[in-house]
Amino acid sequence: MNRFLKKSYAAALRLWTGLCRRLPLQRRVLFFSIRAEGRLLENAQCVYDALPSRKVIFAHKHPLPARYRPKLRYLMLTSKVIVTDDYMPELREVQLRDAQRVFQIWHAGGGFKKMGFDVFPQPDNIHAQYDDVVVTGEACREFFSTAFRLPITRIHAYGLPRTDKLHDPKWYAAARDGFFARHPSLAGKQLYVYCPTFREVGKKRVRFDPQLDFHAIDRALGADEALLIHMHPTVDYSFLDDGEPYERIFDLTAQEDTLTLLCAAALLVTDYSSVIVEASVLGLPMLFYCPDFETYERGFYLNYPEDLPGEMTTDGQDLVGQMRRAVGQRSIEREQRYRRMQTEMCDGHATQRVVAVIEKWLDEKQSAGDTP
Predict the structure, then answer these.
(1) Who contacts 52 (Cβ-Cβ below 8 Å, separation ≥6)?
(2) Is residue 27 within a helix (H) or strand (E), and if so which, with residue range?
(3) Model confidence at 371: pLDDT above 60
(4) Tens digit of pLDDT for each residue in 270-325?
(5) DSSP E strands, the chain
């Protein structure tokens, strides 16, 4: 798009935005997400499914193509409530109407690695228009308040909606049984699930080297053991090479979701990933393998590694032995302390609490220009 067309498009979008602002406000919930194309994930999907009111989905990865922006402006300025689960860049460009409400059900649970303004200081606050933000426990409210530069009164410990099903024995059994039905060769084995997060250098994404000899690990694993790898959703590479095949290591990133793997696992191995929230709710033992701990840039809200629900190691030479010890000699006291600090409200009723707030907002007295 050349300069003239860009200016013309920007002017037309401003006129369209002004018109949308004058249209009646509808008793409708807009679910906005940049995390997947055409669909909701995890928390947002849980809330969407449970909400009985009128609702619409706008889910597109960014950068958002110009052809989608007029529709988004219309939905943004005519929906009584907006629910999002990640950054919503358009909140920098559009001032919402006074009667509108925004609910942030952030995709990463707990107060773990630093985020938002605590990592990326910016001249304006993209989060300023949130009316309510979900966290997993009371201790996390302060962390999200500083990360989003919001009053702590807008941060509430409702729990993480996607963890509700982890309290349902039928769902858990179905997830576990379904996994082993799809992977019968893994049935009866002790499964270690490795879920590392992405890496940054100078706030730019880089390829992560886990400093592990996966062929040596493959040989060290017993016949009754297996290592399952699940990469972060934004990572597009695998740790496993295409040469010599592996007998007991499997990259299941494209085949299984993280929650399903956790239901089948004997141990979670991770580093700085918020997947520890779900593992904590499931009561799963954990091992934190962090070869780059001394150079990791993000920083943490908790005392790392003292507050972790498991041991931390930087040495991958004996990873198999450390995984076995983490399963057999787990620290129940550390796990319980973390659960009390971080996941106390992930009690199976988080979705219900979030939906109740949204329904209350929808029922707030509407002005004469609003439509039911």
Answers:
(1) 359
(2) strand 26-33
(3) no
(4) 999 999 999 999 999 999 999 999 999 889 999 999 999 999 999 999 999 999 99
(5) 26-33, 55-59, 79-84, 101-104, 132-135, 155-157, 190-195, 199-201, 204-206, 225-229, 249-251, 267-270, 286-289, 310-313
Amino acid at 166: L
Q: pTM of the predicted model, to two decimals? A: 0.91
**φ/ψ bin of 211: left (φ > 0), alpha (ψ from -120 to 50), beta (otherwise):** left
CATH label of the domain that carries residue 19: 3.40.50.11820
Residue 240 lies in domain = 165-342
Q: How many domains does the chain have?
A: 2
d(CA 138, CA 72): 34
Given a contact cutoff of 8 angstroms between Cβ atoms, the answer to whether 110 and 277 are in contact is: yes
Element (H, E) at 48: helix 42-50
Domain for residue 277, yes or no? Answer: yes
Pair (176, 323) in one structural domain: yes
- Is residue 4 domain-resident? no
Q: Are 198 and 232 in contact (CB under 8 A)?
A: yes
Q: Report whether pLDDT(368) > 50.
A: no
More confident: 69 or 6: 69
Is the separation of the CB atoms in 305 and 331 below 8 Å? no
| Per-residue pLDDT reduced to its tens digit, 133-165 | 999 999 999 999 999 999 999 999 999 999 999
Is 292 in the same domain as 170?
yes
pLDDT of 217-242, one tens digit each? 999 999 999 999 999 988 999 999 87
371 lies in some domain: no
Average pLDDT, the chain: 94
Q: Measured between alpha carbons, how far is 22 from 11 in angstroms, rounded to an integer?
A: 17
| Domain harbouring 186, CATH code | 3.40.50.12580
Neighbour-count burial of 286, counting CB atoms closer than 10 A to its CB (0-12 exposed, 13-18 middle, 19+ buried): buried
Q: Is residue 1 part of a domain?
A: no
